[in-house]
Write a structure and sequence with these properties.
Elements: E1 4-7, H1 16-22, H2 26-41, E2 50-52, E3 60-66, E4 69-78, E5 82-91, H3 98-115
Parallel strand pairs: 1-5
Antiparallel strand pairs: 2-3, 3-4, 4-5
Length: about 120
C-alpha cells in the first residue's frame, strides 16, 4: 500500500464524508470505493483519478465518474503517505465551487490544529 486514506472527523465526532457516502446508491458508492482503493494501492496515479488543485492550500482532489454523475473528494496529505479526505460532493458544474474549497481548507486547518 502506497497511501492510507482517512476520513475527516470533527472535534464533535461528526463524520461528514461517511455521511455523504452513506447517501449514495450502491453503484456510486462502489465506484468511489474502487477509486479510493486505486489511490491507496497504486504508486503512480493518473490525473484522471488524483490531481493537485491549483490556488488552494495544498488540496488534492480524488476524481470519480459513476455513470453520468461526477464526484469530487477534496483531500490533503498528513506526511507523505496519509491522505485525509476533508470534503466530498457531487459536481454539477465545470468549476469546483469556492465554498467546497473553503470548507475543505477549514477542515484541514481544524485537523492539524487538533492533531498538535
Amino acid at each position: 500500500m502506497f497511501r492510507e486514506i482517512l476520513f475527516y472527523e470533527s472535534a464533535e465526532g461528526q463524520k461528514p464524508i461517511q455521511r455523504f457516502l452513506d447517501k449514495l446508491d450502491g453503484k456510486q458508492a462502489k465506484k468511489i470505493a474502487w477509486t479510493l482503493q486505486i489511490v491507496e494501492e497504486m504508486e503512480m496515479l493518473s490525473s484522471k483519478y488524483f490531481k493537485k488543485m491549483v490556488k488552494t492550500d495544498d488540496l488534492w482532489e480524488i476524481r470519480v465518474a459513476a455513470g453520468s454523475n461526477i464526484f469530487r473528494l477534496l483531500c490533503f496529505f498528513d506526511g507523505s503517505k496519509l491522505v485525509v479526505i476533508s470534503h466530498a460532493f457531487q459536481k454539477k458544474s465545470q468549476k469546483t465551487p469556492k465554498q467546497a474549497i473553503e470548507l475543505a481548507e477549514e477542515r484541514k486547518k481544524d485537523y492539524f490544529r487538533r492533531k498538535l
